[in-house]
Structure formats: C-alpha cells, structure tokens
Amino acid sequence: MPPPAIRIAHDPEANVWYVHRSDVGDMSAEAPTAEALIARIPVTIAAI
Question: Which of 25, 38, 41, 42 is packed most tightly, with the most Cβ within 10 A?
C-alpha cells in the first residue's frame, strides 16, 4: 500500500501553512511554517 498523499498550502492572509488535501480521513492541521506542519503530520495521523 502506498503512503497517503498529503498536500499542504500556505495562507498568506493568516500567515499559516495548512493541510489542503489529504488521503487521510478528516485530517486537519496548521502551523506557522511548512517544516512545523510536516513534523506535526505523523502525530495528527496517529490521532485520527
């Protein structure tokens, strides 16, 4: 089974990075940097 596809995007108005699209259920996450969001993704997936 391939790993889930997760796309992140930047909201310049709110100045945050967020999960734009994901193969993982109701995944929702945001962070101040792309690196912080990527680091948060495994924890978020484990909580779903």
Answer: 41
Work out the number of other CB atoms within 10 angstroms of the CB of residue 32. Answer: 11
Q: From CA 6, how far away is CA 44, in angstroms rounded?
A: 12
40: how many CB neighbours lie within 10 A of its CB? 15
In a domain, 34, yes or no: yes
CA dist., res. 48 & res. 33, Å (int)? 22
Of 35, 33, 29, residue with least CA distance to 16: 33
Q: Which pLDDT belongs to residue 3?
A: 85
| Residue-range definition of the domain harbouring residue 36 | 6-47
Task: Compute the average pLDDT of residues 8-29.
Answer: 95
> In which residue are the tokens 């779903």 written?
48
